[in-house]
Write a structure and sequence with these properties.
Blueprint: H1 19-38, E1 42-43, E2 46-47, E3 55-56, E4 61-66, H2 67-73, H3 76-82, H4 85-88, E5 95-102, E6 105-112, H5 116-127, E7 133-134
Parallel strand pairs: 4-7
Antiparallel strand pairs: 1-2, 2-3, 4-5, 5-6
Helix pairs in contact: 1-5
Length: 141
C-alpha cells in the first residue's frame, strides 16, 4: 500500500528538498561535528551549554581567545550573561575560550589549549573565514 506524504516530505524516503536545502543541511551537520570536536554542543541549530542560554549558531560570530584576553574582554554585561564562566576567564595559557556571540546572547566555552585546531576549524566554518587566536592584546568592542 502506498503512503501519502505531505508536501514538506515527512519521512526519510521521498522527501523533496531543494539543492539549497540539502546544502544547508549538510553545512549544519559539518558545523555540528566541528563544534563537538572543539567541545561545543550544537543541537537543532543552537549552541547549548550548561547554565547558559541557548543561542542559534546561524548568524553567530565565533572568536577564540587565550585566557588572559578573554578576561580583559569580559564586561559587566558579559558577566551578567555568562555568570560563573566569567570567573574561569583568568590568566591560564593552557585554556582557550570560544566566545559565540549572537544578537540573542553570548555563550562562553572554556576549552583546553590542545583543542586549538578543532576550535579554529569550528570558528572558520561558522564565520566563513580563517580565525586565529587573539593573544594578550585587548580587542576593541
Amino acid at each position: 500500500m502506498a503512503r501519502n506524504h505531505d508536501e514538506e516530505g515527512a519521512g526519510m524516503f521521498g522527501s523533496k528538498k531543494s539543492p539549497e536545502e540539502k546544502a544547508a543541511a549538510a553545512r549544519q551537520r559539518q558545523i555540528t561535528a566541528a563544534a563537538a570536536a572543539a567541545g561545543v554542543t550544537v543541537i537543532s541549530g543552537k549552541v547549548r551549554m550548561p547554565n547558559q542560554q541557548a543561542i542559534p549558531i546561524e548568524g553567530a560570530r565565533v572568536t577564540i581567545e587565550a585566557g588572559e584576553t578573554a578576561r580583559k574582554r569580559i564586561t559587566a554585561t558579559r558577566v551578567a550573561l555568562i555568570g560563573v564562566f566569567a570567573i574561569w576567564a583568568k590568566k591560564d595559557m593552557s585554556q582557550l575560550f570560544i566566545t559565540i556571540e549572537h544578537k540573542e546572547g553570548i555563550v562562553l566555552v572554556p576549552v583546553p589549549a590542545r583543542k586549538e585546531a578543532q576550535a579554529r576549524i569550528f570558528a572558520t566554518m561558522v564565520n566563513g573565514e580563517a580565525t586565529g587566536i587573539t593573544k594578550t592584546e585587548a580587542t576593541p568592542e
